[in-house]
Amino acid sequence: MRWEQGSRLWVIFPRLQDTGEELSTTLDLWICGRPGLLPSAGWSTWSKIGFSGGGAAMARERNEKLAALLEEARWSRAQAAAAYNRVAEETLNGEVRENSKIGRSHVSMWVSGVQPQGVAPAILCQALSRRFKRDITPEQVGFTVSTSPAQEALDWRVDPLIALNDLGSGVDADRRRLLTDGVYSAASLLLPDETWWTAMAQPPAEQPVAGKRVGRGDVATIRELTQAFSRMDQRRGGGHGRRAVDEYLKSEVLDFLRGRFANDETRRAMFAASAELAYLSGWMAFDNSEHAVALSRFNTAVKLAARSGNAPLSGHILRAMAHQSLDLGFRSEALKIAQASVHGDRYAAATPRERALLGVVHARTLAADGQKQAAARALLRAEDDLSNVRDGIREPDRTFFFGEASLAHETACALRVLGDHQRAVKEFQRSVRTRGAAFRRTHVVTLGYMGATQIAQGGVEEACVTWTSVLDAMEDGIYSGRARQTVVDMRKLLSPFRKRGIPAVGALDARATMYLAQVD
């Protein structure tokens, strides 16, 4: 097909592409002219998957850096596209994720010199980083990338009130911006040095002379709302209610933070309460697999916590960042963040329950890093910390969910990484036995992981029984990307057994397929 528009000539060549899985029709796009002149075939779709259009096609120089990296990785164009799509599946969400999928022709275009835009460079760099087990930057791949607003917001020098103010343009618009411009990457996980923490904890040089007067009752209101939504998150999952949390953050909370405080104690308490609510928004986004959004909220929460001078709260939020990083495969970054979460007063000044929480996630990152003995010591210390919980010690409300069941769950995850599947199953079972009904979302995730560990031991029918309980709970109203992922993983793990005539496998697989069709 050929289109004439003004003096610009557009040529699109349809071509059949065999990905090894199915035949699909793709368009190799050769562009002469500016992207703004693309006809109704839809430039917006092409820009989402990383094509830029400036300059004549024939004038482009081959991207030798990318070609060399693909050769070093021993990837064909199709294999590179598949690796890219796996990272996009993990780090993006919803419509943007679907529109960001690529085929081998896209990789060929990039090698030929086309510069990708949007999230594409970061996603490809992450795919290559995983392959080589070292950081790969856009410059090393031969890409010229400008920093997006979403990535700039993660700069530790950016005032957290500015980040909250950016929500004022609309929660939905903010979410779309983060999903379009933001991508979860290793570069986004670098923490500030100790001088930053010290400076952030200092009282402001000048007090506001305008704005509403803020008192202890206002702090209590934010804490009450945080508790209510945190308990809802535990019951229903992070996909239920997060927009309401963000709406409150960008309106009421921002006004409080800009207000006049009766004294510095009230100011610090308000920043701490606001940090907990921002953290909750991040945790809910993480649970719902909105990872770029989650990282942004965690970043804001850490800044607010640092302003409050509350070291254990900062550790609590860093622990969540480490948890997310680990789940997404950023093992070395997760370990560094977890180490920061237990550094100094973040651990030393924490209560026993919070120490146990920080410590067990640290243990998981040590296990993932292959430090078996250090992980074992950290697990024992976490057990000891939890055993020191007493009625006379007032624990912060943010730790209400963490008890024996949660400790057993995290311990099982560490043991599974270390290859001790037998003990991991026992710890998952202990978690299931001891978890209360108020924590249904995490209960489902635990069951999902336990089934995966059982099938790794050869217990196919046992895994089917466990996973049946997962679907029972999911169908009753759990809105969680993590829980949904256990169903996706379930189908993958059942795949080798589908043709063996095991009735439980066929029934469970059919039910899981039906469930995913209804929620996707």
From TrEMBL:
Classification via InterPro entries: TPR-like_helical_dom_sf
Entry-linked SUPFAM superfamilies: TPR-like
Domain of life where this protein originates: Bacteria
Protein name: Tat pathway signal protein
Taxonomic path: Bacteria, Bacillati, Actinomycetota, Actinomycetes, Kitasatosporales
